[in-house]
Amino acid sequence: MKLDAEIALAHRLADAARDAIRPLFRAPVVSERKADRSPVTEADRAAEEAMRRLIEAEFPRDAMHGEEFGATTGNSGRTWVLDPIDGTTAFMAGRPIFGTLIALVVDGWPVLGIIDQPILGERWLGVTGQQTLLNGQPARTRACRALADAALATTGPHYFDDHQGAHFMGLAAKTDHKRMVMGGDCYNYAMLASGHIDIVCEANLKLHDWAALVPVVEGAGGTMADWNGEPLHAASDGHVLALGDPARLDDVVEALACNH
User: Fold this and answer.
1) Residues 34 and 117 in one domain
2) Residue range of the domain that includes 251
3) Confidence (pTM)
4) Which of 120, 102, 117, 119 is CA-nearest to residue 62?
């Protein structure tokens, strides 16, 4: 699949989101609560609006799915999936571990993804069948010889319900709990793609939360799946795993299935 024009646009989208976000970082920013009680700021909205304008101009037949402004229909079988600030809570706290997520989904499968950290100037690009790049240089996951050696990350325990939390703790009990990472949103997946984290486990994610992550992680040598080990697609249920070493997938699925 040749995606040169789409990759070029994705970079321009990330640049536009950076331009909208950076002036508002650690500045007095007005925020409010959405229907699900999650926060949203003027930076979220400005960044998504800027990206939507570019997509409409260049690929008007493509659909769009954004966290802040919902979905538009298209007739190309392709959807641009946007999360202008994944980690709004971190952004509001002045912590540069949020990211802009940009994905191109074709017939339900993510084929292109960008994780962009606008403050640190870090950008991971993943494309199906290609090596993931961090600022133009190859990014690679690391090997993990045993689950007991694995560094596990999740955004936070409060994002699990009691049932999901019990399964997560079953996995956590079999990993290196002294290296567990809490907080980080999409940045955890970027760190996994660059070989600093071994496993990310989350639940209740929406398409805009994870679509961009799949090409980035898999192009770096890792794998992403649901909690049953099945590949992620647009109809997946929001239970998300990322592994730097695909050889550990069966171990992780087995650990999650054990309800401790």
Assistant:
1) yes
2) 147-257
3) 0.95
4) 102
